[in-house]
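Quick start: what a row looks like.
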Amino acid sequence: MPTPRHALRSRSNQDNSDEPSEVPIPKLHQNCSSPSVGFFAPTYPLKKILIPFPVFSDVFNKFHEEQEQEFKTVVQYERNLAVKKEEMAEHGDNLRRLVDRKRSDLRDIQEDVRHMRTKLASLHEKMVPVFNKLLADGDQLDEYNVSSFAIAFAKRLNRDSG
C-alpha cells in the first residue's frame, strides 16, 4: 500500500535530518474520473490475456461461460467427493465398531468354551470311577438302578475296551 504524501512530510520532520526522504512515491493516475478510487492507486501494467479472440465479443462471452461452468462443475465434484469421504469415514467407523463388538463376542464365547471344558473335565474325573465300578459289576446293570443311557454307554465302553 503506498504511503500518503503527508505521512512522508511528517516523518521527514521527525527525523530532523536535512536529507530528503528516499521513500519512492508511486506514480498516480492523472486522468482518472473517480478521485476516490483511482487517483491514488499506483499504475501497474495490465496483464495479458492469451486468448485468440477479441475480449468484448460473443466468442469471449461463450468462452467465459464455459470456463465458469467448468469451474462450477469442479466445485460440485469436490463437494461430492467431500460428502463421499465423510460417508466412507462414517462407514469405516461403523465397521470398526462392529469388528470390536464381534471380537468381544468371540472372546466371550471362547471363555464360555474354556469354562465348559473345565466343567466337562471335572465331570469326567468324577464319572470315570463310577463307570469303572459299573463295568466291574456288569451283572447288576438294569434300567431301574441305572438309566438306559448309562447302560448303553457302559456296554460301548466294555465293547471298546474288550
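That is the whole record. The chain has two domains: 1-44, 45-161. The helical segments are 5-15, 58-136, 148-161.
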